Design the sequence.
């Protein structure tokens, strides 16, 4: 999984990104998503044209993003993923003139992506006011863009959108997973290779209250990138995950998101977009968010890869003989049965938990080479250090915050009684 | 032919049901949605406080509702649909409660539906995806419950209608059971094929769809003939307010933030010919009692406008 920060969330001076790059590297973040919308904001360009008759000057825009690209190149921080400018979902722009400028900007930016060797390009699908020929229009648009990018290894991803119903954001183009999947497949058929994919914007899913787990299961491997962001379910803001809380509880369906991405074994680009959170902080504090971004990445990688990590080992033993061990047995006990579990508490040695023998940690030293030790205890760092000291290399982590299912055996029992 | 109906809740009272039905008639309704759920309220079920209303035998229930039936008949108001109490399964409840809901409340609701000569009863799917791990597993449990009622539905010629409902995550409304029209259509067809009768149909709730940003036209067209019943009401896109259509705006232009045009286009496209039923009981408790009749008239006026629009578009 590639871990990427959206540009506006981390680069606060486009002309001189050095400080951001330095701080990103220090935090352990090594990739950003270049965002052409920062330099060619379609909302401003189109409304400026409509209201003040402002002429669009493509040269000035090109100079701006090329200068930023130079700054990134100097620091050896050129991105491999970019997003072309998006039209604001609240904006109603469907005049032929607008469409012409939109297409010109997309084409320009596409060429710039090619120049810097971007391998993944995220594009907004066209949103026509009438749904007639929406697929045909988009097909032609995407194929035209692809023809501007001669490198057949470059993936073009389109995203799920919302639209404005007189100010209320509702499901827009490609928010229906079945349709989106058909579009990806249709485009790939047209070009005879896997050139197109999907970028799942979790923020848009959240705005429309969508079942993210169901959406990911329909789209499956077509999901090449995920935008990790949060909002209040009403406004299109880009907030740091877990910050939109009420009464000590987050309002976003992270359970569905994690379950879905885990089930589909997501391994694409994970793009953290928290621009509104970052820019609402004082410039003196913004860089302090970077270690938090890194921690969030690590957390989501742990959650998404939970089962994938278990598959790495031929056999496993557990560390921890408490509730988390019990939950491991509930979730994965049958699929990945442990040899035994162990615990630092001597009083538990020699007992059994969920049919597993509880041993002292020393017993782990006798495990075969291909066996992994899965920590089932929130003291991950401490236990990992203990295991490393014992010379154990194959260390994995189990966490029960987002379980594939919760205790519900009663339902089965009741079914049998009826 | 399209008819106009409304919930009986907040209009028809047990003390004098005839008076309530007379009010509906006077306002211009020809149909109503009998609020059976008012007799075992959802808040009570969720707090495991099950009253003894459904302890009555079918004969006792018929006696209880005899005046309601007569009042509706005398007023010429047809009970065209009704709402089963909900939820019909509470994950945290004692098994006896869920057994009671399944074995007493469900079948007796069907009996009452038959007694009223009503063809459609709305039921909420079980909310279990959180526990079971997927929407598919959740549906299996709903289907298992439906299986207990389906033979009765077939015999009584009643269609049980599943409804698009929602879940709540710390105040944020998200998709709940039956919000995928494609899946709902497939499941309804499969279920009916199994029973060789139209025992399962769909109730489209405009308010719930609006909360979830669902495109009503697309949803209705996907359901097609499987759509039997409507719950028409409006909200601000944030909370399930059950208000009168066209109440809410979200932009400076003050145009409706709910896609009523799409809803009507959808109905026209599938040539919907049943009841435009308004689920707007909270409006009647919000307005002063003295204005109740005027409010009911106004709802009928909106219904008439909808009928006109659907007919024009067909």
Sequence:
């Amino acid at each position: 999984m590639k871990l990427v920060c959206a540009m506006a969330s981390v680069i606060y001076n486009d002309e001189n990104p050095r400080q951001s790059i330095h701080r990103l590297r220090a935090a352990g973040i090594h990739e950003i998503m270049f965002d052409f919308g920062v330099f060619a904001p379609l909302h401003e360009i189109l409304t400026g044209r409509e209201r003040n008759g402002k002429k669009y000057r493509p040269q000035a825009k090109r100079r701006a993003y090329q200068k930023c690209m130079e700054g990134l190149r100097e620091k050896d921080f050129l991105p491999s993923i970019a997003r072309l400018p998006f039209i604001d979902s609240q904006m109603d722009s469907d005049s032929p003139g607008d469409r012409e400028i939109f297409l010109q900007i997309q084409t320009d930016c596409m060429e710039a992506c090619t120049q810097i060797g971007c391998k993944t390009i995220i594009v907004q699908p066209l949103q026509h006011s009438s749904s007639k020929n929406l697929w045909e229009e988009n097909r032609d648009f995407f194929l035209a863009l692809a023809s501007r990018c001669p490198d057949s290894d470059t993936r073009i991803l389109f995203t799920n959108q919302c639209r404005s119903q007189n100010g209320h954001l509702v499901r827009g183009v490609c928010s229906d997973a079945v349709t989106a999947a058909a579009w990806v497949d249709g485009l790939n058929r047209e070009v005879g290779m896997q050139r197109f994919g999907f970028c799942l914007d979790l923020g848009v899913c959240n705005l429309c209250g969508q079942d993210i787990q169901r959406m990911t299961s329909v789209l499956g491997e077509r999901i090449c990138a995920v935008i990790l962001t949060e909002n209040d379910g009403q406004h299109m803001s880009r907030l740091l995950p877990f910050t939109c809380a009420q009464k000590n509880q987050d309002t976003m369906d992270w359970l569905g998101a994690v379950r879905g991405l885990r089930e589909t074994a997501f391994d694409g680009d994970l793009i953290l977009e928290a621009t509104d959170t970052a820019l609402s902080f004082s410039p003196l504090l913004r860089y302090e968010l970077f270690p938090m971004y890194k921690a969030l990445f690590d957390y989501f990688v742990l959650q998404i890869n939970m089962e994938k990590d278990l598959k790495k080992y031929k056999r496993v033993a557990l560390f921890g003989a408490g509730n988390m061990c019990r939950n491991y047995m509930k979730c994965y006990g049958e699929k990945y049965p442990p040899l035994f579990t162990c615990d630092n508490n001597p009083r538990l040695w020699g007992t059994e938990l969920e049919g597993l023998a509880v041993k002292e940690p020393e017993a782990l030293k006798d495990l075969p080479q291909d066996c992994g030790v899965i920590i089932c205890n929130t003291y991950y760092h401490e236990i990992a250090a203990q295991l490393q000291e014992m010379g154990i290399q194959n260390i994995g982590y189990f966490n029960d915050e987002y379980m594939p299912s919760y205790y519900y055996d009663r339902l089965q029992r009741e079914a049998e009684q009826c | 032919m399209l008819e106009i109906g409304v919930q009986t809740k907040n209009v028809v009272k047990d003390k004098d049901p005839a008076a309530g039905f007379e009010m509906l008639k006077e306002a211009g309704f020809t149909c109503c949605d009998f609020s059976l759920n008012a007799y075992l309220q959802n808040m009570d079920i969720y707090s495991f406080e099950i009253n003894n209303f459904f302890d009555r035998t079918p004969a006792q229930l018929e006696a209880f509702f005899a005046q309601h039936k007569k009042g509706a008949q005398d007023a010429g108001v047809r009970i065209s649909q009704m709402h089963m109490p909900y939820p019909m399964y509470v994950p945290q409840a004692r098994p006896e409660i869920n057994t009671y809901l399944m074995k007493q409340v469900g079948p007796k609701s069907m009996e009452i539906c038959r007694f009223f000569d009503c063809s459609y009863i709305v039921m909420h799917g079980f909310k279990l995806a959180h526990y079971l791990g997927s929407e598919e597993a959740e549906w299996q449990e709903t289907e298992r419950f439906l299986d207990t009622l389906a033979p009765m539905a077939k015999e009584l010629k009643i269609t049980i209608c599943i409804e698009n409902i929602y879940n709540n995550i710390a105040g944020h409304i998200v998709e709940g059971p039956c919000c995928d029209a494609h899946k709902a259509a497939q499941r309804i067809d499969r279920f009916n094929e199994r029973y060789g009768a139209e025992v399962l149909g769909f109730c489209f709730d405009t308010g719930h769809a609006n909360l979830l940003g669902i495109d009503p036209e697309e949803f209705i067209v996907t359901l097609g003939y499987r759509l039997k019943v409507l719950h028409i009401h409006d909200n601000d896109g944030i909370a399930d307010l059950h208000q009168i259509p066209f109440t809410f705006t979200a932009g400076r232009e003050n145009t409706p933030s709910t896609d009523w045009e799409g809803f009507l286009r959808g109905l026209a496209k599938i040539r919907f010919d049943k009841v435009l039923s308004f689920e707007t009981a909270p409006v009647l408790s919000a307005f002063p009692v003295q204005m109740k009749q005027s409010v009911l008239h106004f709802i009928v006026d909106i219904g008439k406008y909808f009928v006109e629009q659907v007919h024009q578009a067909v």
